[in-house]
Amino acid sequence: MSTFIPTLPPAQRAALGDHYDRAVAAKRRQVFIGLLLFVAAALSAGWMAEVDLPKLFDNIDNFSSYIVRLAHLSTGGGVWTDVGEWFWGIKRWTRLMGETLLIAYVGTVLGGLGAFVLAFSATTNLTRSAAVRFITRRLLEFCRSVPDIVFALIFVIAFGLGPIPGVLALAVHATGALGKLFTEVVENIDMMSVEALRSTGANRIGVIRFAVLPQVLPSFVSYSLLRFEINVRSAAVMGFVGAGGIGQDLLEAIRKFYYSDVSAILVLIIATVMIIDMVTERIRHSLTSVLH
Questions:
Q1: How far apart are CA 241 and CA 165, in angstroms?
Q2: pTM for the predicted model, two decimal places
Q3: 87-291 sits in which CATH class?
Q4: Is 51 left (phi over 0), alpha (psi -120 to 50) or beta?
């Protein structure tokens, strides 16, 4: 049994072929122009930042040699040959690492509370006042745009050395970052339950409590735990500006060229962050499944 395959007239096929070729050529031009713009932007950025590629390649061996020195004790032997000597300050470093975790924890809690309070006022579906939304969104942008290390420097000047500046710096930055995420979550909720509660005369707090929170709470918890992981890493360098934690000892070891101390502290930080990541991931999955 023969099968008839219809074909287009030659003129129509030629017109469609020309249209396809033009579309492909236009797409290629767009890709080419995009690559040119990318290269131009990269070269401009390198020129403005005074990047010296010959100098980079001439000194790249210094980086590798520094890494090698990190793996050796002051006696010249490898750090693995005398773990006791390598981690001679483990008691002090563990205490400072605990302080770092507390800074990250308290900063995350305060930042989460701040984001929770402000997020609902920044949403278009719950807040009708454009002025309130504008002010709240700009405040959140300010909190997350300024680096947390800059906030830490400001708070160190205001409150002195110690963990309090680190906590406040992380809290302010976490408020802005979590506020943005919380706002997006709230703006994507199902509004049917919200409108149903509003029709019964429920006030704003009642609507948020019974119509919004059940939908957004799992995402709020997940984002807060993720922020805690980020804040642990950020708190580890807060000591660079005197804001508490293990960063101060790390900076001192780097400045005094105590290579084995630098590597020991780095190993402790990396191990702690890995444990925190694994624990918070399990907690996040467990809480998400329960809250859902």
A1: 10
A2: 0.79
A3: mainly alpha
A4: beta
